[in-house]
Amino acid sequence: xxxxxxxxxxxxxxxxxxxxxxxxxxxxxxxxxxxxxxxxxxxxxxxxxxxxxxxxxxxxxxxxxxxxxxxxxxxxxxxxxxxxxxxxxxxxxxxxxxxxxxxxxxxxxxxxxxxxxxxxxxxxxxxxxxxxxxxxxxxxxxxxxxxxxxxxxxxxxxxxxxxxxxxxxxxxxxxxxxxxxxx
Length: 183
Hints:
It is a single chain. The protein has helices at 2-40, 43-61, 116-123, 127-137, 177-182; strands at residues 73-80, 87-93, 96-103, 106-110, 145-153, 159-168. A six-stranded antiparallel beta sheet has the order 4-3-2-1-5-6, sandwiched between helices. It contains five helices and six strands. By secondary structure, it is α+β, with helices and mostly antiparallel strands. The N and C termini lie far apart (67 Å). The relative contact order is 0.14.
């Protein structure tokens, strides 16, 4: 009887902590959207952020972003395709990563959207090397508009700071570019 009660208590504590973590990540996502809207201050940004927050909330509820709460820094890579309206996204830190493509409120999980080389530069926040490679390799035809973010969190889960860097896609950003570099 005692083992059943202990098991029930452990299961209950686990369930409550999962719900608390999920709520904290939803709050981080909302806070990130609000900060992006106030920073960029445009109707277009507000529309994009509303859709981005909707998609992130879906991913959070499915457990794909639970790794965010395990560290106080995470990174977001977004590549916008103006022709299709698709946004190629990676959210990552040392504990995990999720990659997906979304357009408005529809999303599809993907793997290996961005090259390992590029994700390592982002994770190390090596902007000088990203700039050097962009100048050396050149901007690709039909380049995505790239936006990378380094998001620092407070201990209570609020967004403390967002560092941003914007540029046009160069050869080597996307995983599919890597075959072209080998030629």
